Amino acid sequence: MKKIYFDYAATSIKRKKILEDILEKADLFDGNPDSSHSFGRDAKKILEESRKAIAKSIGAKPSQIIFTSGASESNNTVLSAFKNKKIITTNIEHDSIENTYDPQNTILIEADEEGISLDQIKEKITDDIKLVSVMMVNNEMGLIMPIKEIGEYLKEKDIYFHVDCVQAYGHLDIDVDEMNIDFLSLSGHKIGGINGFGVLFASENLPSFIKGGEQEKYRRAGTSYVMGAYSMAKSFPCMISEREKIKDLKNYLLDSLAKSKLSYQINANPEKTVDHIVNIYFKDYRSDFLLTYLDMHGIAVSAGSACRAGAVIPSKVVERIYGPDRASHSLRISLGFENTRADIDMLLEVLGELDDR
To answer: Which coenzymes or cofactors are required (predicted)?
Structure first.
């Protein structure tokens, strides 16, 4: 039985050619990049070339790029720096934001099926607001937020702007200067890189979140993860080249659903969502049943975020926008570079068999 993977928003299938490339030049990764010998210098060269490539991909300077263990650490670092300050964020942020902010000092913007608006931000701005944190693309429903408009407004207000770009990176154009972004979080494994590596763009220094050595110019301690940086830098150009394919797959999925006999609704306006995430409400079947049923047929999907220790928990985002019943009957289909139209045909065929029973 062929296994089909529709859970790229949780983590991408690994890019085998990049892993093979790393193995072929494994000797260059052996040294600690902070060591002064030739082994260290080889690793340092790869690390800094990767930093330049990642910086260029978001319109930043290499000196503004801090390597971390992942976007959760990057998000934690930013919010911890504003722990005693008044901030604004939304009710559909990733858990690494939601579980870090101080509720007493936080104003929440409530999203609807089209996301949030600049006007909602404007209504909540007061003189004591120091930070606004808004994800560019929601990880559970794929909603795209008006980041450029928010950034332009906040620049005039002299308020810091943090953006979690994990689900946007590679799928949408990002330029930190054009969007007036002060802090930005990324994660390598979402685009085909190795797990356990992330990026924090910081327009100015923040207090070090991980204490220890002098790595990352004193901004983040810990031995640098050279393979992680390299795999992320090499994965980004692949993402750009795959955009049209992912867009075609989304359109094919939506068109095929419309032609099917399945009883469903799309969560969120498809015109307001990123191409690789489609969240679907199946009123006749609970999501936990569908997840098990599809897995038995070799098809991997999800109900919500994968950050819940493996538990099948309905999407908090669908629940907050549509209600708990709809959330408990919804699935997230997230598309990636190894998917084909035939995979979508198989998904709908397997789901269609339920109605034939």
So the answer is: pyridoxal 5'-phosphate
Catalytic annotation present for 165 = no
Which is the catalytic residue, given 26, 240, 296, 307?
307
Output the pTM of the full model: 0.94
Q: How far apart are CA 188 and CA 184, in angstroms?
A: 13
Rounded Cα–Cα distance for residues 277 and 301 (Å): 11
Cα 58 from Cα 53, distance rounded (Å): 9
pLDDT of the chain, 357 residues: tens digit per residue:
789 999 999 999 999 999 999 999 999 999 999 999 999 999 999 999 999 999 999 999 999 999 999 999 999 999 999 999 999 999 999 999 999 999 999 999 999 999 999 999 999 999 999 999 999 999 999 999 999 999 999 998 989 999 999 999 999 999 999 999 999 999 999 999 999 999 999 999 888 888 888 888 888 979 899 999 999 999 999 999 999 999 999 999 999 999 999 999 999 999 999 999 999 999 999 999 999 999 999 999 998 665 554 556 889 999 999 999 999 999 999 999 999 999 999 999 999 998 765
CB atoms within 10 A of CB 211: 9
Do the beta carbons of residue 59 and residue 176 sit within 8 Å? yes
307's CB contacts (< 8 A; 6+ apart) are 72, 94, 95, 96
